[in-house]
Specification:
elongated; mainly beta; single chain; eight-stranded mixed β-sheet
């Protein structure tokens, strides 16, 4: 009899249960909610509910409010708010969209609950598409969090949506921008200008432009993040335009007049890539505190008006790492900081160098550094450098028929060879230093000379291929140097006589290791090396005339 009663209850329950509901289960205002499909927020059919948020999901009989436990908009679902609602504990998951489409008499209120109250996760979107004029209102310290990869999309300009990111707006403190969060300006109406977008924190949000806009003001416009211009951005007026962490995207960023506010990049890190930059007379400045990375080939051009053209300068006061990419255009380049290139073709002079031959490379600032950093062989452009670093590995060689100048320091790092072309010279100023570090090689290439300098420090290997030898005359590899206060040969270093021809060996008593290589006869005078003497290849060491015991045994 008891079994029959239980079966009858189950049968009746099955008859009265509606699809998607368990027998006896109803929706409570404090349930967990998740989107059932795309739809309207205030329509119950848009939702499923569960008492515990993990099991027993049913078709909801209510719409979620701030009383709900957790509200999730799932991948592929677009939930639209088109009437007044108050919400809390909302999570928009990757692929989900929360669209704000309130009218003139309706608005969204964000309740101040536990934690951040609306969370836009990576790949999710909060879409501003109101037909009225009311942005969300926030109770207490309620918060909308745009996480890394999350998007706040501006589909129209109703209600001053710049205020989501404008740091002087009344709701700025209620929007939390994560690192690589995205403000997607997808409206043809231009955003506010003369304001600061995003707070000055360590996070680097992205101001993405998806439709052509123009803005400018006599006041400064600042983006404390990265400008991603995927459509044309036209910048006007005298106020400076600061893109703290750089400019990327496929669109053109352009001045609208010959004269106008300078473009500035001043973040600790920055990126430059994508479409052209068209500059006014005040150009673009990369701040001394900035390390910028070039992520693609890029063009920097002068603005051309109906009656005049700008004469713009890209000023690098910080560090610009260019990798293998090129910078083209017709503006000037001023290097006051550091340029680090791995371009195999060198710094300038052709269509394939870091700075193409269409650009004008100004004089180098006194503290500037150019670093050839390729992991492999690389051409060094012969220019009058302030400071030159040779790093990475492989052979860094001067090919062009021109002298190279150093006003400051030339530093050759471990595992690198810096080679002259055998004809032209390395000219050091009277205050310059040449450092050949341990396991580094300097190769004069033939009859090239090292001229001038205050200090020449050999910790690694110096290869001379000059017929007249290493030091002492105007024909030796180091031009006229005999003073050990200028030339320091350190323990463990090597001087190599490597010509494929006869060579005169310089008489010095401060050699550490000495090597004779190549071919031909190396005529050795009296001298006392402190380390190892090596003879290799087809070289002949003629020590007979020196009558020195060390060499009579060789």
């Amino acid at each position: 009899m008891k079994l029959l009663f239980i079966q009858l209850v189950v049968f009746v329950c099955a008859l009265i249960a509606t699809p998607g509901k368990l027998c006896g289960q109803t929706t409570s205002a404090t349930d967990y909610f998740r989107s059932a499909s795309s739809g309207i927020w205030n329509v119950a059919a848009s939702w499923q509910s569960s008492a515990d948020g993990s099991t027993n999901w049913i078709s909801s009989t209510m719409v979620p409010t701030q009383a709900a436990n957790l509200i999730t908009i799932r991948n592929g679902h677009n939930i639209t708010i088109n009437s007044s609602v108050t919400v809390d504990q909302v999570v928009v998951a990757s692929g989900g969209i929360l669209e704000l489409a309130t009218g003139a008499s309706s608005s969204l209120t964000v309740n101040d609950g536990t934690g951040n109250d609306i969370i836009i996760q990576n790949g999710a979107t909060f879409k501003h598409n109101i037909t009225g004029s009311s942005l969300p209102s926030f109770s207490g310290s309620s918060m909308v969090e745009i996480q890394t990869g999350g998007v706040l999309e501006i589909a129209n300009n109703n209600g001053a949506p710049s205020n989501y990111a404008n740091t002087s707006s009344s709701i700025a403190a209620n929007i939390l921008w994560g690192d690589s969060s995205i403000l997607n300006w997808n409206s043809s109406s231009s955003p506010d200008d003369g304001v600061t977008y995003f707070p000055s924190t360590s996070a680097i949000p992205i101001f993405r432009v998806s439709k052509a806009i123009s803005f400018g003001n006599t006041l400064a416009t600042v983006i404390n993040g990265l400008l991603e211009a995927n459509a044309t951005v036209s910048l006007s007026s005298a106020g400076t335009k600061t893109f703290r962490n750089g400019i990327i995207g496929s669109g053109t960023v352009t001045s609208t007049a010959v004269n106008g506010g300078q473009f500035i990049i001043d973040g600790a890190t920055a990126k430059l890539s994508g479409g052209p930059l068209v500059l006014n007379n005040n150009g673009l400045a990369i701040s001394s505190s900035t390390t910028a990375t070039l992520g693609s080939n890029k063009t920097f051009s002068n603005f051309t008006g109906s009656t005049a053209s700008a004469s713009a300068t890209l000023t690098i006061s910080g560090t610009l790492t260019t990798s293998d990419f090129t910078i083209d255009g017709n503006c000037k380049i001023q290097i006051d900081g550091t340029v680090k290139t791995t371009n195999a073709n060198g710094l300038s002079g052709s269509a394939n160098t870091t700075f193409t031959n269409n650009l004008t490379l100004n004089n180098f600032g006194g503290l500037s550094v150019v670093e050839y950093a390729r992991l492999g062989d690389q051409t060094v452009t012969p220019l009058p450098y302030a400071n030159l670093n040779i790093s990475g590995n492989g052979i860094k060689k001067i090919v062009a028929a021109s002298d190279i100048g150093i006003a400051g320091t030339c530093d050759i790092a471990t595992s690198n060879t810096f080679a002259l072309n055998g004809t032209n010279h390395l000219n050091l100023s009277n205050s310059s230093t040449l450092n050949i570090n341990t396991n580094a090689i300097f190769d004069n290439g033939g009859e090239s000379r090292v001229k001038g300098g205050t200090n020449i420090n050999i910790y690694g290997t110096f290869i001379t291929r000059a017929a007249a030898g290493f030091t002492g005359s105007t024909s030796t590899a180091i031009y006229g140097v005999t003073n050990t206060a200028v030339l320091a040969i350190y323990a463990g270093s090597t001087v190599e006589y490597g010509a494929f021809a006869d060579q005169q060996v310089t008489s010095r008593n401060d050699y550490s290791n000495i090597t004779f290589s190549g071919s031909g006869t190396k005529t050795i005078p009296t001298m006392i090396p402190s380390g190892t003497v090596t003879i290799k290849d087809n070289a002949i060491a003629d020590a007979f005339s020196s009558r020195h015991p060390s060499f009579e045994r060789v």
